[in-house]
Design a protein that fits this description.
Elements: E1 12-13, E2 16-17, H1 19-48, H2 53-82, H3 84-105, H4 122-153, H5 160-190, E3 192-193, E4 199-200, H6 202-222, H7 236-253, H8 275-291, H9 295-301, H10 307-312, E5 318-319, E6 322-323, H11 332-354, H12 361-389, E7 400-405, E8 413-415, E9 422-424, E10 428-429, E11 440-448, E12 451-457, E13 460-462, E14 468-472, E15 475-480, E16 494-501, E17 506-514, E18 519-528, E19 531-540, H13 551-574, H14 581-605, H15 611-634, H16 641-671
Parallel strand pairs: 7-11, 13-18
Antiparallel strand pairs: 1-2, 3-4, 5-6, 8-9, 9-10, 11-12, 14-15, 14-16, 16-17, 18-19
């Protein structure tokens, strides 16, 4: 604490109130927590809850939309009822509980009664996840509008310079939090943990954000004594809504011809509301009207966490020494943001200015939309390349069967049409296929004396007479009886040692390399001396399209974000009076929410079976919206709120002078 500050209300450091540091740390932890959880969310849906891609995408975007709808609620609670400090604390508690529930929901040992590594009661996990996500959406959304405003409240009116710098540091802490968490959380998810069986570590990936949220909360409460806490002033949004509502109602009442028309429909509110509020509301509505096309941008932008991450799961993440997880590709965005924002401000914009082009804020937003559309064209091109390498999976009502002959005699396998029985040339085995569903199956056949063993298998098949204990890397497949098969097990990629132990000998293969995304069936033929003889059958070939091919689309969409997102808020604030910032922020966040709802509708309603076609559809939709926005922007006239405010002040002064003169006259008359 500085010596000169013993007497004043707020201790300061480098001219900043100390309380600011608590707020910045709190924001860093909160963003880390949110983005970390969001980074692994879609893969948690796909691989843990076993939801298909479309459902995962829909639920992901429902959650993000909720996170951007709740800020309006948060702002109302803070401004009209609890005040910012209490709102932040109480909603942070809700948030922390939500994160903790998410972490618990992802523990597969919770319902894994038979200890085979998969949860037995998925509905329990789904119910917990949904509760957790709703609490997180309430928490993160409710806090969002309060934290930055609460930070702004800490400065005195003469600290404008420090306040501006605080907002820069604040945004930096948001990006730092999202960057670090998007790198760290997928690594945590990639590790293996579990009580009875080792699995991908979702509890840790959700648990670390939960712990950080608790830290954020504690840090924020510690600073409690130092904060300037402004009393709730009533919410400007409510006033604006009432003013608009009254104007519409009043206009409707006076719709007949005998009432003179008014210059603007909002002027019908003048009976009840003062001129200043009406003038300010006009400015706000003018900006909000321009917001109407913006959600389409967010519809594309927020698919980085859903569709693009799912796209990365079908790609090869081998970057030489390091292995990139599909959900880590999202880090390209925050890394580029940190690099691009200063470069664009210091280099690109001045260059455009030098060329004599007037790059107005609305033109920047239009360019941002066009670039995002371009990014999706790039994503579609990558998808076309991936589709060439993907195996053909069975459609609804189909089953694929692969037949492996384990014997040395040739076997004939016939599938009779319309019959749910397999026929073999040497013996018939009744095997119901109708119950197999939409899956791939491997059928292993061997003629052993007079009986035939038909086994639907995956991964290891023991083709020897005696039982063998198989392990690959650190994963144990357990004892396999003669002619039996193990379950499929998931591995991290790379070369693995395979070790087999029988009652009489121990044997192994020092290393066998498996590619990313591949699935193999390994038939153990012999275990003698120290060598293990095996046949490898590739069920699904490894992914061959490299994840680096996603970098162009990430680069383009980040350029789009820099010119769109940063400009959008600055432009909004410059076009409306300062006391209306909350309304504009609410409107801006609403565009993000609506954007995510658009994805829900398109992903749910479009009957496009090809992913690349969906990318092209989104690109086309945004291009159309971009053209509409360009036309709207062309007809927009920029205003200077300060001038309008000054004009209002002037009018008020004149009015006051008039009133005074009238009073004097009246007095003079009464004295006569």
């Amino acid at each position: 604490m500085n010596s000169h500050c013993h007497t004043c209300l707020q201790p300061s450091c480098f001219g900043y109130p100390i309380s600011i540091f608590f707020i910045v740390i709190n924001e860093f932890c909160e963003r880390f927590s949110y983005y970390g959880m969001r980074a692994v969310l879609v893969l948690y849906f796909k691989y843990f809850l076993h939801w298909e891609d479309n459902l995962s995408t829909v639920i992901y975007h429902t959650f993000v939309a909720l996170c951007y709808l709740t800020p309006i609620l948060g702002a109302l609670i803070a401004d009209s009822w609890l005040g910012k400090f209490k709102t932040i604390v109480s909603l942070s508690i809700v948030y922390t509980i939500g994160q903790a529930i998410m972490s618990i929901s992802s523990i597969n040992d919770l319902t894994d009664y038979n200890r085979n590594g998969t949860p037995d009661h998925i509905p329990v996990h789904i119910a917990l996840s949904v509760v957790g996500l709703i609490l997180i959406a309430l928490g993160t959304g409710g806090i969002k509008p309060c934290v930055s405003a609460f930070g702004g409240d800490q400065f005195d009116d003469d600290q404008e310079k420090q306040r501006t710098r605080f907002f820069s540091i604040f945004y930096l802490s948001i990006n730092a939090g999202s960057l670090i968490s998007t790198i760290v959380t997928p690594v945590l998810r990639g590790t293996e943990c579990g009580i009875h069986s080792k699995q991908r570590c979702y509890p840790l990936a959700f648990g670390v954000p939960a712990a950080l949220m608790a830290v954020a909360l504690i840090v924020f409460i510690i600073g409690s004594g130092m904060y300037k806490k402004v009393q709730p002033q009533g919410n400007i949004m409510i006033q604006v809504s009432k003013c608009v509502g009254f104007a519409i109602k009043n206009r409707f009442r006076h719709r007949s011809k005998e009432f003179p028309k008014r210059e603007h429909w909002l002027d019908w509110a003048s009976e009840k509301y003062d001129k200043r509020l009406i003038a300010q509301t006009k400015m706000v509505l003018k900006v909000l009207f321009l917001y109407i096309p913006l959600p389409m941008f967010w519809a594309l932008f927020d698919q980085q966490g859903s569709r693009w991450t799912l796209q990365a799961t079908t790609m090869d993440g081998n970057f030489g020494a390091i292995q990139i997880q599909p959900d880590q590709m999202q880090t390209v965005n925050p890394i580029l943001i940190i690099v691009m924002v200063p470069v664009v401000d210091a280099v690109i914009y001045p260059l455009i200015k030098k060329c004599g082009i007037n790059f107005t804020p609305l033109r920047k937003i239009t360019v941002g939309m066009f670039l995002a559309s371009l990014a999706f064209v790039a994503a579609a091109l990558v998808q076309v390349q991936i589709d060439k390498t993907l195996p053909v999976f069975p459609a609804a009502g189909q089953t694929q069967i692969k037949v492996i002959n384990l014997g040395s005699v040739e076997a004939t396998v016939k599938f009779e049409p319309g019959n749910s029985t397999f026929f073999f040339s040497f013996q018939t085995i009744d095997q119901v296929v109708s119950s197999l569903g939409e899956k791939r199956h491997t059928l292993a056949v061997k003629n052993v004396g007079t009986t035939i063993v038909a086994e639907l298998v995956s991964l290891f098949i023991n083709n020897m007479a005696q039982t063998v204990n198989i392990s690959m890397g650190s994963t144990h497949f357990g004892p396999l009886k003669s002619l039996s098969a193990s379950n499929y097990k998931a591995f991290s990629r790379g070369s693995k040692a395979i070790i087999g132990n029988t009652s009489s000998s121990s044997c192994g293969i020092s290393s066998k390399t498996f590619g990313f995304g591949s699935a193999s069936t390994i038939v153990i033929n012999e275990c003698s001396g120290s060598s293990l003889a095996a046949t490898y059958i590739e069920d699904i070939p490894p992914n061959t399209v490299h994840m680096a091919w996603q970098i162009p689309q990430y680069f383009i969409i980040t350029c789009a974000e820099v010119v769109f997102s940063v400009t959008g808020l600055e432009f909004s604030y410059s076009q409306a009076p300062s006391n209306m910032k909350a309304v504009l922020q609410a409107g801006w966040l609403l565009t993000v929410a609506v954007g995510n709802i658009i994805v829900l509708i398109v992903a749910g309603a479009s009957k496009l079976s090809e992913q690349w076609a969906e990318y092209v559809l989104f690109a086309a939709l945004l291009l159309v919206v971009c053209i509409i926005f360009a036309v709207m922007a062309y007809f927009y006239t920029y205003v200077d709120p300060n001038e309008i405010e000054a004009q209002l002040d002037e009018d008020e002064k004149k009015q006051a002078k008039k009133d005074k003169d009238l009073e004097k006259e009246a007095e003079a008359i009464s004295q006569m």
